[in-house]
Prior knowledge:
Chain A is α+β, with helices and mostly antiparallel strands. Helix content of chain A is 34%, strand content 25%.
Amino acid sequence: MQKIIECVPNFSEGRNLKVIRAIFAAAKKVKTVRVFELEYNRDHNRCLFTIVGVPLDVLASVFEAIKTATKLIDMNKHQGEHPRIGATDVVPFVPVFGVSMKECVELAEKLGKKVGEELSIPVFLYEEAATKQENRNLADVRKGEYEGLKVRMNKPDFGPSKTHPTAGAVVVGARKFLIAFNINLDTPDVEIAKKIASAIRERDGGLPGVKALGFKVDGLAQVSINLADFEKTNFDEAFREVEKLADKMNVKIKSSEIYGMIPLAALVKSVKTTFKADTFKAGQILEGRLSDD
Amino acid sequence: MQKIIECVPNFSEGRNLKVIRAIFAAAKKVKTVRVFELEYNRDHNRCLFTIVGVPLDVLASVFEAIKTATKLIDMNKHQGEHPRIGATDVVPFVPVFGVSMKECVELAEKLGKKVGEELSIPVFLYEEAATKQENRNLADVRKGEYEGLKVRMNKPDFGPSKTHPTAGAVVVGARKFLIAFNINLDTPDVEIAKKIASAIRERDGGLPGVKALGFKVDGLAQVSINLADFEKTNFDEAFREVEKLADKMNVKIKSSEIYGMIPLAALVKSVKTTFKADTFKAGQILEGRLSDD
């Protein structure tokens, strides 16, 4: 089977549907990839989508989208709740099938070089692709945001050493597959969600690979979780930990939601862990046996 | 996507590898189906395998296997622990994708007619395909086994009204997908497994669609479960029920095992149920998005 990667570019436009659709359509110009899961948010004034396919085709597709975003978005007029430093804000490559992290890092470098040279936008490499420790964490690269870029501009990995007049800068990198998992508590008390989020997030000494925030959504407290490495902490493990912590505060879990895509391997791992089915493997799934040999 | 069914024929030979392989090879003569998961057992003196493909191709494949089994197995010489009435003992058709139970019943009738007419073996239709209430349950059809067939022969659905001189009779039918799920308890006390099995099996007032027995396997008590309808009782629900019952007897679950194949829909349902992720659907599984539209 061929190599498959995923790319989830984020752009600083979440209000003007014409612009959002133009960027999405640009990615679709490359016919050999699948472009889907377009999401946009007015408050964040930001959109993102997923590109899946063989590595070089995904690179070509996301480059088309970046070119269009560079033409249509003016960061000098951009306002939104979400931190951002550029029209194309962040572009992560993610190994999905038969591809190593190293190959995704090389792809990030290739895209970075192309964006720097052809579009004259400074590019910072982050996470697995980072060349400097201080650029590893996306939040650190974005500190000061677009407005702060001009004054704190350190040497980017590719492109000019000054921000692009309308597109700012771009953060490109490689990371593991990220599972978005929300847990809704049976209480309107957002403080409880915030306490639980703080207890489980890695940064505060919680579970490895876990990022978490507490929100109020549709009148209920929600623990919104990003699992950056499901091999370390999977959704089922996060669920049980939240359940345990909520239980101590006499709160029940009302529902949960896997947001967006999830790799089959994470489902298989959850069955192995939660039901102690150590020998279970993806090859036992009937539908899979219809296509592979 | 095309219609897909599964067929799991059982034959009365579990010792002579030459015969087992000949039957398996006969099924493989039809190149458009997948034939796999060959299992055989000396004590039961019985083998079975799985055929997956489009309905009429699966029918052609299993008919080849039945023809070969009829030639090579002499029931007058057969001994084994497992109940059986024929060389080809039982042939269930199972809907997998885009196929209704009704279509599988019609397929069972088609195969039954063909086996009766072309091989001169009496055929009884069972379970969803049964034409008589007393033939619905496989255990009832097999009562008295091969040896008792001659004396209690009632009118079969197809074929002659007397048993085939060497092949006996065949039971053909249609049923839902069956998940085999074993739960190993952290105790050597088989009586505990038997108590739990009795408490969860439908026949004794337990969970719908659940068949269960208690065994001792590798020195540990095992609850061996067949889930005849995972939409009613899925493996995760059976796991939690066994866990609860074991807990009352101060016994822990050591491990579990999904034996053989499982439909993706059962995995998806387990995530929905166990983690209250009501909105989760198979379309969110990344690998699936690579192939369908």
